[in-house]
Specification:
Largest sheet of chain B: 6 strands, mixed
Strand content of chain A: under 5%
Radius of gyration of chain A: 20 Å
Strand order of the largest sheet of chain A: 1-4
Order of helices and strands of chain A: HHHHHHHEHEEHHHHEHHH
CATH class of one domain in chain B: Alpha Beta
CATH topology of one domain in chain B: Rossmann fold
Organism (chain A): Bauldia litoralis
Number of strands of chain B: 12
Distance between the termini of chain B: 34 Å
Oligomer: heterodimer
Helix content of chain B: 25-40%
CATH architecture of one domain in chain B: 3-Layer(aba) Sandwich
Strand content of chain B: 25-35%
Structural class of chain A: mainly alpha
Number of strands of chain A: 4
Shape of chain B: globular
CATH architecture of chain A: Orthogonal Bundle
Shape of chain A: globular
Membrane topology (chain A): Multi-pass membrane protein
Number of domains of chain A: 1
CATH topology of chain A: ABC transporter involved in vitamin B12 uptake, BtuC
Radius of gyration of chain B: 19 Å
Number of helices of chain B: 8
Largest sheet of chain A: 2 strands, antiparallel
GO cellular component, one term (chain A): plasma membrane
Protein name (chain A): Ribose transport system permease protein
Subcellular location (chain A): Cell membrane
Largest interface: A-B, 26 and 32 residues
Distance between the termini of chain A: 23 Å
Helix content of chain A: over 70%
Chain lengths: 333, 246
């Protein structure tokens, strides 16, 4: 079973890459500064927190990309959710006299709820009106961006709510609460993608729309649900952003859109659809977080981050292509 | 004579002013293979689309086991046991044979006694059993169908149909995209379907295939049935004459 072993290694390539990166930074930190990189709990916590938002966006994006689509609007859906969360939490306390805990819950849930709007509109455009995903979600990118800035009044929206701060910065047995939430979402998404009809049909849609339609799958409804899921992930990321910084900002997710796509691609998904895994996406998001955090840790000028992540994206795509050739993704007959 | 599985009586289909089919009749018995021959635009595709529920007929009747049927969608035709295998096969290349057979109707089991998960074991077993019935022996049951040859993929598409107890299989140019050894394999496949008592209608341009496997040959020309022959009572020349006219 040569090809089996090979393809399993290929599936794990993002994880292998992650381990190599950790070894690299560990060695550098040891040699140059005589300190440990991964032995430092603070570093691990920071990387975990740092990775949470792009990872949440990437988890939703994984479904979209496997279905042969793309969602460009998740960054500003996240910003919209962050602003709405902060506003609603403030309103809950100031106007409705809620206690901080209830106001926090209402705020976070509102952030997730508001994400349904861009999600449903994206799904409707793409599923019913057959707008290409790139264009439909590009339009939504602008709409969500404008709406977020309008609601925020062009400024960041500070929240003074100790429960918000606790969710965003608290730790349980040393593990940041944000990381615990992310891990729960990871397992949920892994289950959805690998063990449900929804996940199976997402793969089928990405490989062959015709096959999905002829199998009696409701492709329109499926597409709606995929874009809704991506938006809800972004909504959760936005709500957690406002908790982490105790402030909502419209531009919260702006730099994270490309990170989310990069994480999915580094994780082994094909932008042509039909392949990708949650485990891969998690590794992809961690690779990006480790590069960005690690370069700061070893005192490299921060602008090198962009270059390093860019190089990693290109390498992953090249590896993916040569793997397809090697393993005979047999462009049949 | 026993009642035919499928009885098409005087079917006509118009697209605007174009007569795609005009008063065409044919029947199909269990364990029988009928070849549909005809030039491009002769109405072969329209006829199989009428039978498989894609087109509604404008005149005439379609009877299944003696009962007249009308369907609103291909899904309803499928519920009646009519499966169509198009030339593009419509397989999800990234999924396993089992996942393709069950696509849209995936079986579930409970993990840890409560969590519903896809029953991949059942899918793999069904895939193995189905492929064995078609005399294709595959052991890589978790491999995506893109890893298999053209003939094997054809078998997967057929397997998907017979697993769901199709009585009538309609195949559009099943051998067109295949190399010679694979074509032979598909012809053998059609013969084994016949032995299993299925009714098969297949469209082909290849007279060799038609004569190798068909019990009857229905020839269409410009939407009209130009003739019906048995392979041992006709010649390739006559079939071609019927196809092109004159």
């Amino acid at each position: 079973m040569g090809p089996g072993v090979l393809s399993r290694i290929a599936d794990l390539r993002a994880w292998i890459f992650l381990v190599l990166l950790l070894i690299f930074f560990e060695t550098w930190a040891n040699v140059a500064y005589g300190v440990t990189f991964i032995g430092n709990t603070y570093n691990l916590q920071s990387i975990g927190i740092f990775a949470t938002a792009p990872l949440l966006l990437a988890l939703g994006q994984t479904f979209v990309i496997i279905s042969a689509g793309i969602d460009l609007s998740v960054g500003f859906t996240m910003g919209l959710a962050a602003v709405v969360s902060a506003h609603v939490a403030n309103l809950g306390m100031s106007h409705f006299g809620l206690n901080p805990l209830l106001a926090m819950l209402l705020g976070l849930l509102s952030g997730i709820a508001v994400a349904f709007i861009p999600g449903l509109v994206n799904g409707w455009l793409i599923a019913r009106l057959r707008v290409p995903p790139f264009i439909g979600t590009l339009g939504m990118y602008g709409i969500a961006r404008g709406a977020a800035f309008l609601i925020a009044g062009g400024m960041t929206v500070p929240v003074s709510n100790e429960w918000f701060a606790y969710i965003g910065n608290g730790r349980i047995y040393g593990v940041p609460i944000l990381v615990i939430i992310a891990v729960v979402v990871i397992f949920l998404m892994h289950y959805l993608l690998s063990q449900t009809k929804f996940g199976q049909h997402t793969y089928a849609l990405g490989a062959s729309r015709v096959a999905a339609v002829r199998s009696g799958i409701n492709v329109g409804g499926l597409t709606m649900r995929i874009y809704l899921l991506a938006a809800v992930c972004a909504g959760l990321a936005g709500a957690l952003y406002s908790a982490r910084f105790t402030a909502g900002a419209a531009q919260a997710g702006e730099p994270l859109l490309l990170s989310s796509i990069a994480a999915v691609v580094i994780g082994g998904a094909s932008l042509f659809g039909g392949s990708g895994t949650i485990a891969g996406t998690v590794a992809g998001a961690l690779v990006i977080a480790v590069i960005e955090y690690g370069l700061v840790f070893i005192n490299v000028e921060p602008f090198w981050q962009f270059i390093a992540v860019g190089v990693v994206i290109i390498i992953s795509v090249l590896v993916d292509q040569s793997q397809r050739k090697l393993l005979g993704g047999r462009q049949d007959d | 004579m026993t009642e035919p599985l499928l009885d098409v009586r005087g079917v006509s289909k118009y697209f605007g002013g174009v007569h795609a089919l005009e008063d065409v009749s044919m029947d199909l018995h269990a364990g029988e293979v009928v070849a549909l021959a005809g030039d491009n635009g002769a109405g072969k595709s329209t006829l199989i689309k009428a039978i498989s529920g894609v087109h509604k007929v404008d005149r005439g009747d379609i009877l299944l086991e003696g009962k007249p049927v009308t369907y609103e969608s291909p899904q309803q035709a499928r519920d009646h046991g009519i499966e169509t295998i198009y030339q593009d096969l419509a397989l999800a290349d990234n999924l396993s044979i089992g996942a393709n057979i069950f696509l849209g109707r995936e079986p579930k089991r409970k993990a840890f006694g409560f969590l519903p998960v896809l029953d991949r074991g059942l899918m793999a077993d069904a895939a193995k059993e189905t492929m064995r019935r078609l005399d294709f022996h595959v052991d890589r049951l978790s491999a995506p169908v893109s890893a298999f040859s053209g003939g094997q993929r054809q078998a997967v598409a057929i397997g998907r149909a017979i697993y769901w107890n199709a009585k009538i299989l309609i195949m559009d140019e099943p051998t067109a995209a295949l190399g010679v050894p694979e074509q032979r394999k598909v012809i053998a496949l059609i013969k084994s379907l016949k032995e299993q008592g299925k009714g098969v209608i297949f469209i082909s341009h290849n007279l060799g295939d038609i004569f190798a496997v068909a019990d009857r040959i229905v020839v269409l020309r410009r939407g009209i049935k130009a003739g019906e022959r048995k392979p041992d009572e006709t010649t390739g020349d006559e079939i071609v004459r019927l196809m092109v006219g004159g």
